[in-house]
Amino acid sequence: MNALATHPLATYAAATHSTARRGFRWRWLVLTIGGLTTLAAVFFITLLLSFRMGGEARAVRHAVFAAAPGEWSPKIELGVGRLPAWIARTGFHLFESRLNLPPEARFGVDAFRSADVGVYQRRRSAASSSPGAMFADVDQAMDERDWEPVVAVQEGHQSVRVFVPKNVSNIRDAQACVFVLERDELVIVSARLNLEPLLELASSKLHHLPFPR
C-alpha cells in the first residue's frame, strides 16, 4: 500500500524536475540569443554612426555657409570613425605581406585614427562677404570648441585655414581640421592621428636607419 501510494509522487517529482531543467535551458537560450542580437545591433549602429561627419568638420561647414551665403550642395560628405578605421587597420595588417607596398605605407595606416571629408559646391551665391568676415566667423565657431587657427592663407580667390585643439597633450590622438575655399567650392578635412608611427618614420629617415618592423 505504501509503495503504491508513493510511486505517483516520485513520478510527479521527476516530471517537475525535468520540466524545470527544460525551462532553464530555454531561458538560457533566449537570453543568449537576445544578448548576441543586442551586441550585433549595437555594433552595426555604431558602425553606421561612424560614417557621419564629426563635430569639428560640421562646425566649420556651418560657419563657412553662414559667412559665404548661397545655395550649397554636398558633392562628398563622409566620416570614417574609429571603428571602421580600426577595421581598416586590422584588414591592412592581415594582408600587408600580399600587398607589396613600401614600408612607409604601414606607418601611414598605423597613424590613421579617424577622418571626415566634405566637398561642397555653391550653385547660387548671395551677396559676397569679405574673407576677413568669413575668417572671423569660422574662428569664433572653432574657438567655442576650444580650437585655434595655426595657418591662415588668403591668396586671390582661395582661402585656407588650419585648426588644431588649443590643448594638445596626447600625440597618440592628435587632431587637425582644414578647410579650403576656392571661389564656389569648399573642401573640409578633419582627422585624428597617432603621431608616434610618423615620428618613428621621420626619425628613421633623419638618421638613415632601417625601417623598424
Structural features, described:
By secondary structure, the chain is an alpha+beta fold. It has two domains: 1-49; 55-206, TBP-like. It is 53% helix and 28% strand. Strands 1-2-6-5-4-3 form a six-stranded antiparallel beta sheet. It is extended and about 85 Å long.
**Alpha carbon gap, first and last residue:** 84 Å
Q: Largest beta sheet, briefly?
A: 6 strands, antiparallel
* Rg result: 29 Å
Q: List unreliable stretches of 5+ residues.
A: none
Note the beta-strand portion: 25-35%
CATH fold call of the largest domain: TBP-like
Q: Quickly give the CATH architecture of the largest domain.
A: 2-Layer Sandwich
Q: What is the helix tally?
A: 7
Backbone shape: extended
Q: Look at the structure and give the CATH class of the largest domain.
A: Alpha Beta
Structural class by SSE content: alpha+beta
Total domains: 2
The side-by-side strand order for the widest beta sheet comes to 1-2-6-5-4-3
Proportion of residues in helical segments: 40-55%
Give the helices and strands, then pairings:
Blueprint: H1 2-49, H2 55-67, E1 70-80, H3 82-94, H4 96-99, H5 103-111, E2 112-125, H6 131-143, E3 147-155, E4 158-165, E5 174-182, E6 185-193, H7 195-206
Antiparallel strand pairs: 1-2, 2-6, 3-4, 4-5, 5-6
Helix pairs in contact: 2-6, 5-7
List keywords for this structure.
alpha+beta, single chain, 6 strands, TBP-like, 213 residues, six-stranded antiparallel beta sheet
